[in-house]
Each structure stands twice: as C-alpha cells, then as structure tokens.
Amino acid sequence: MPEVPHALRQLVDAVHPLPQEAWADFATIWKPYTARRKEMLLAAGERAAYLYFVQEGVQRVYWYDDQGREATLVFTYAPSFGGVLDALLLRQSSRYYYEALTPSVFLRASVEDLFAQMQAHSAVEVLVRQGLTHALAGVLERLVELQCYSSEEKLRELLRRSPHMLQRVPHKYLANYLGIDATNFSKLINQIRI
C-alpha cells in the first residue's frame, strides 16, 4: 500500500478520528490522481464516481444552464475533500460541474470503496456524516453572506477566509462566486485595502 499523506490523516482526525483498524482500512481506498488546468472532473449529467482529497491546486463546483447562466458554488483547495457531494452520496447524476482551475494533485476514493468502508466501519460513517455537517454549516453561512452582505463585505469575508484565492483564481470566477459583476469586482479590489 502506498503511503497516505499526513495531511489526509490530519483532516480526518480534525473531523472525526478513526480507530486504528478503521483508519488502516480507510487509508487503502485512496489512489493518486492528477488533473490538468481546466480539466473537467465531473460534468452535469454524469454520475459522481469519486470523492477527492485535494493535495494541490484549486477547483470549483459550478452550475451552468442552457441560457448561458453560470454560478460558481464552491472552491476546493488543499487540504480539503472535494467533489459534488450530493451526487456522490445519493448515487445520482450530477446537476453540477467539478473542474480543476489550476493543475491539481489529488487522492481519490471510488464511491463503491467509500460506501464499503462506511458499511464495514461505523466510525467511517460518522466521519462522513460529520464532514457533511461541517459542509452544510458552511453552505448556510454562505447563504447569509449572499443574501445579507454588501459586495464589499462579501469580498472582505472571502479574503478573511481564503486570502490566497485572490492570487490563485481568475477574478471572473471570484466575482461570479460572490455574485458581483466582474467590472464592479475589479473596481472593488482597487478600493479595498487588503
């Protein structure tokens, strides 16, 4: 078995530490994977096959409709889990796209292996549930920001949470994520002292 990076163990321990036997089994399901810049990891209409652990790079989950409207919903970057979680865990076709914005390095686990681990070890099932609970808390916080914060407040909050994003992600995606027109975003960046 290849060595599983310490960062994966640290993230697991931060969410819900696994007993040694469960960790030993869980660690075996992760396989290395690399993606090129702009590589589509999952397209709308496809079934989600993998849960990703991001080691390097930035990715985004986004929605795109037949009228050309696009909404960037979430960014993933190291060290975090990534993918389209609802499609993965419900075992259904995705409504969303998951794309590598930069060259990316991952570990990934197949949905079959993940479900087998959840079945074999209740601690892994608790880990997944705790991870989803944290993700839901983040989604609810983001909804408040989108609905109640001014454009400047949204940008400041993003920079507080993830300051590196300004240098690593094209501004058009950040503007879309925040619900700000790209031209206004550029003006706002120039006005705010960071």
In short:
This protein is α+β, with helices and mostly antiparallel strands. The chain has helices at residues 6-15, 20-27, 85-90, 111-120, 122-148, 151-161, 165-168, 171-178, 182-191, and strands at 31-35, 40-42, 50-56, 58-64, 70-77, 80-82, 97-100, 104-110. It has a domain at 6-120: Sandwich (Jelly Rolls).
Polypeptide structure, described:
There is one protein chain. With 194 residues, this protein is α+β, with helices and mostly antiparallel strands. The chain has nine helices and eight strands. The strands form two sheets. A four-stranded antiparallel beta sheet has the order 1-8-3-6. A four-stranded antiparallel beta sheet has the order 2-7-4-5. Strand 4 (58-64) and strand 5 (70-77) form a beta hairpin. The longest helix is centred in the last third of the chain and has 27 residues, at 122-148. The radius of gyration is 18 Å and the shape is globular.
Task: Spell out the blueprint of helices and strands.
Elements: H1 6-15, H2 20-27, E1 31-35, E2 40-42, E3 50-56, E4 58-64, E5 70-77, E6 80-82, H3 85-90, E7 97-100, E8 104-110, H4 111-120, H5 122-148, H6 151-161, H7 165-168, H8 171-178, H9 182-191
Antiparallel strand pairs: 1-8, 2-7, 3-6, 3-8, 4-5, 4-7
